Amino acid sequence: MDFSLTDEQRMLQDTADRLVREQYTFEERQKLLDSEQGFSAEMWRQYANLGLLGVPFSEASGGFGGGGVELMLISQAFGRGLILEPYLATVVLAGGLLDAAGTEAQKAEYVERIIGGDLIASFAHSEPTSGYALSQVETRAEKQGDGYRLTGRKAVVPHGDSAEWLIVSARISGDTGAEDGIGLFLVDAAAKGVTRRGYPTIDGLRAAEIALDAVEVPGTACLGEPGQGYALIEQAVGRAIVALCAEAVGAMEVACDLTLDYLKQRKQFGVPIGKFQALQHRMVDMRIELEQARSMAILAASSLDAGREERERVLSAAKCLIGKAGRHVAEEAIQLHGGIGMTWEYSLPHYAKRLVMIDHQLGDVDFHLERFSDLMETA
Amino acid sequence: MDLHYTAEEQAFREEVRAFMRDKLPGTIAAKVAAGQRLDKDDMVNWHKALNSRGWLAQHWPEEYGGTGWSPVQRHIFEEEAAAANAPPIIPFGVNMVAPVILRFGTEEQKQYYLPRILNSDDWWCQGYSEPGSGSDLASLKTRAVRDGDDYIVNGQKTWTTLGQFADMIFCLVRTDTTVKQQEGITFLLIDMKTPGITVRPIITLDGEHEVNEVFFEDVRVPVANRVGEEGQGWTCAKYLLTFERTGIAGVGHAKEALRHLKYVAGKQLKNGRPLIEDPLFRARIANVEIDLMALEITNLRVVAAAQNGGVPGPESSMLKIKGTVVRQEITDLLRRALGPYALPFVSEALDAGSGVEPVGPDYGAALAADYFNRRKLSIYGGSNEIQKNIISKMILGL
């Protein structure tokens, strides 16, 4: 049992931390919110130059073969910086699927460009009524000649507005809800029949509603075995859960630090408000939640190599606990700040928003509690 | 980073498991499993069994008979001991006064007391709390006045756990009333057979006799029984508290209690189906299990960070808080799982060999009483509110 980082991991952590600390100021971030893309193409280029976009890809795909711990370190730094770039959508989700199931030709065409920072992609999976259930795929893929014709709607696709390519999940066979029969397809976002409505999300990121109206794709657009997409989706989502958990820990660290500073500086009744025991104990509770969340992020990161059942059990436990901890820290941080915690101009509330919204991505507290409950060992 | 146990750690786990299988008497394990009362012999015999293997003194240096275990090994031992339903190690001698004697005691004190602790010759108890000094321990009033080669002690200690069995008590006493509270305290070792000492039971809300009041009336204690200098008692006390907090998370106990909860919930019925299949109750179990998973890693992170220093710092206050909350939550669910059968209170059924059958399921006899008993977890060893004060001051700098 060893919690220490290797030299390479420590260097990666330093690189990501320094980049965020030195170049990703809150003021710069806020300017990006109003830009057309909603994130910084220049930062994306820097991530590529520093190798961060290639870290999670296997060496066979031209990446660095990073595992859960590496993904955790990067995501935690990104959480501290509240970064806006499509790392989760492009690298972790779309990239993860391509890495796991792409043919040589597909990897050559897409993965290389993702790692190089030349391609924004996303995973269009959720649907207007699917909630968080991964198998609730209504979008249909009908065989047509060598290819498929896709029809359906995809909901809240992360960075779906700026993605040039989409990996779309669509049902080749079976009923909505069946794990079997889900296919994955590479779709040009500019293809005929694709309609997108992009929009900002409340945490400052971007997403899109995507309608697919008889979109025709060739057989070569199929990712992995036709109809066998579920296991791939589950794995990619598992990695994304690790990334989200670590991002939340990074955001919680900043929220706790900001709140602690505030308690020490803000004076009322002639003393810093941090002298009041009622507030001290609440601050302590926030820190305990942070440490518990950190433990779960580590456990989740370490679970990716485990067998399916163990992995999914731990991931659900982690997402559940971090959803609760994130909400706790977000709400308490705002409360302990008082009025200033309610303002747009101050950084803390934006961390709070991201923390709460992380619970709305890839399964919330209730979803993962129920799932863990199903997977829990009972003897 | 690797959260797997190493091959050596796995082998150690097997060794501990084998020891539990061979050396833990089945009668004792059965009592622990059923929540029945342990008598003094049960506890002493377990100490002796551990000592015969050299596994009693887990926090001592090896030269004095300690195990030399790493924090991870101690964690593994705790898990396996709890899983085997071993009784707890009574901490007052081996884990509390011994480290103080090792750190502050004279060579004579070490030579005399430490072997007696290992051999279970002396049963120790703790003389800290007083009726007027709970969380504010430094306000203690038990007075020790120097008279030649003796101190004369007058006052009262309380919440003295298992003091009814004790041969020795280590006490914080006030030797100087003219200086700052913390500077007027001295650490004394007192023979419980000394004239002037009276022990009276305190019966707790579960009807059990676990704690006591200890009265001191003109009790003569040789100056040779003082540990450290006069007025250095508070330093000893703080040092002891760091040991009191090791293992405070109680992860091993909590994991065993969670297994028991699943067992009970598997036996109890709701609408004719096992309670554990009820989505609401099952989710409650899942919730506490998730908290415990996180706590286990937090605990291991803290002990790993303390690997070189030996004892954890103020971070252990976090473990105390979270660990006690989790354990109390599990006892709460155990009580609730019983439904109406939480009500019957047949005290004799908790004595093995009394021949008195419990009312309701046999696994249920102790659960409600245990729930009430475990309310103490968030009070003793520095209440959870005091732990928050410690974190606030030592970690957050507020």
How would you explain this protein's 3D organization?
- The complex is a heterodimer of chains A (379) and B (398).
- Chain A contains eleven helices and ten strands.
- Chain A is an alpha+beta fold and 379 residues long.
- In chain A, strands 1-4-5-8 form a four-stranded mixed sheet, with helices on one face. In chain A, strands 2-3-7-6 form a four-stranded antiparallel sheet, with no helix packed on it. Chain A has a two-stranded antiparallel ribbon with strand order 9-10.
- In chain A, β6 and β7 form a beta hairpin.
- By secondary structure, chain B is α+β, with helices and mostly antiparallel strands.
- Chain B has three domains: 7-89, no CATH class; 124-232, Butyryl-CoA Dehydrogenase, subunit A, domain 2 (Beta Barrel); 245-395, Butyryl-CoA Dehydrogenase, subunit A, domain 3 (Up-down Bundle).
- Chain B contains twelve helices and ten strands.
- Chain B has helices at 7-23, 26-34, 40-52, 71-83, 91-104, 107-118, 233-244, 251-267, 279-305, 315-337, 367-373, 384-395; strands at residues 124-127, 143-147, 150-157, 168-174, 185-191, 197-203, 209-222, 226-227, 269-270, 273-274.
- The mean pLDDT of chain B is 94.
- Chains A and B meet through α7, α8, α9 and α11 of A and α8, α9, α10 and α12 of B.
Keywords:
heterodimer; A: 379 residues; alpha+beta; Butyryl-Coa Dehydrogenase, subunit A, domain 1; Butyryl-CoA Dehydrogenase, subunit A, domain 2; Butyryl-CoA Dehydrogenase, subunit A, domain 3; 3 domains; four-stranded mixed sheet; four-stranded antiparallel sheet; 10 strands; B: 398 residues; 12 helices; 44% helix
In short:
The complex is a heterodimer of chains A (379) and B (398). Chain A contains eleven helices and ten strands. Chain A is α+β, with helices and mostly antiparallel strands.
Number of helices of chain A: 11
> What is the number of independent domains of chain B?
3
CATH class call of the largest domain in chain A: Mainly Alpha
**Distance linking N and C termini of chain A:** 25 Å
Number of strands of chain A: 10
Oligomer: heterodimer
- In total, the number of domains of chain A comes to 3
Average pLDDT of chain B, rounded to a whole number, is 94
Using the 3D structure, state the CATH architecture of the largest domain in chain B: Up-down Bundle
If you compute it from the alpha carbons, what radius of gyration of chain B comes out, rounded to the nearest whole angstrom? 22 Å
CATH topology of the largest domain in chain A, by name, is Butyryl-CoA Dehydrogenase, subunit A, domain 3
CATH topology title of the largest domain in chain B: Butyryl-CoA Dehydrogenase, subunit A, domain 3
Kindly report the spatial arrangement of strands forming the biggest sheet of chain A.
Answer: 1-4-5-8
